[in-house]
Specification:
224 residues, alpha/beta, Glutaredoxin, 2 domains, 6-stranded mixed sheet, two-stranded parallel sheet, 4 helices, elongated, membrane, transmembrane helix, DUF3105
Length: 224
């Protein structure tokens, strides 16, 4: 092969190589375009799958909680509003214990109280998603101690004595309450209380309020 033939062969090889390189670039670009078309749908599919899995886990957990709960003895109550009124103003509520309505601007704080607290401060606590456990002061010290233990072991819970209760025990959340007497021999139905807390904790119109110090009231509470 002479030099001219060798040169022509080399040019041909270079052209062929360029053609192959161009074809590879075009194929790569086509694959990239196809991937870019598919990618949003793939991401969407992953998001939908993740949401579906999350919902499945949530409903599975909720189902397990529901299966572990006993009968719901609570009663619904009308929403009586949530206006702030001057401290010391007495409010006549429609339910005993109250579950909503006008209230004082300072909420009774979370925790356990050895002395009664005003309904008007406690209703404010219910507005913040609290559960209020109240009891007649003349029940046994053993039951009172157990109620206080429940109150200390739970967030967003208030425990107080309340002489005006019609039953030994009353539990209130926003627009929801349960009231019952102790069982035979003065036994306390703890599960009934714990189930109420599970169902209605943090259900007030201003829920998700962090743990609060609030206010401890001392009598006299009212202006008249």
């Amino acid at each position: 092969m002479n030099e001219m033939q060798a040169g022509e062969s080399s040019k041909k090889e270079r052209r062929e190589q360029k053609r192959e390189d161009r074809e590879k670039e075009l194929a790569k670009a086509a694959r990239t375009r196809a991937l870019l078309r598919i990618l949003p749908w793939a991401v969407l599919a992953l998001v939908v799958a993740a949401l579906a899995f999350g919902l499945w886990k949530f409903y599975r957990a909720a189902s397990r909680v529901s299966e572990s709960l006993g009968p719901d003895f609570s009663r619904a109550a009308d929403d009586e509003g949530a206006a702030h009124i001057s401290e010391g103003t007495r409010v006549e509520y429609k339910t005993n214990p109250p579950t909503s309505g006008n209230h004082w601007s300072d909420s009774v704080g979370d925790g356990v109280y050895e002395i009664p607290q005003p309904d008007e401060g406690l209703v404010h606590a219910l507005e913040h998603g609290r559960v209020w456990i109240s009891y007649k002061p003349d029940i046994s010290a053993e039951v009172i101690e157990r109620l206080e233990e429940i109150g200390r072991s739970r967030i967003r819970t208030v425990v107080t004595p309340r002489p005006q209760n019609e039953t030994d025990i009353a539990i209130a959340a926003w627009t929801r309450f349960d009231a019952f007497n102790l069982g035979e021999g003065g036994t306390l139905d703890e599960k009934r209380i714990l189930d109420f807390i599970t169902r209605f904790d943090n259900t007030g119109p201003e829920k998700n309020v962090p743990a609060q110090g609030g206010r401890t009231y001392t009598e006299p509470w009212y202006k008249n």
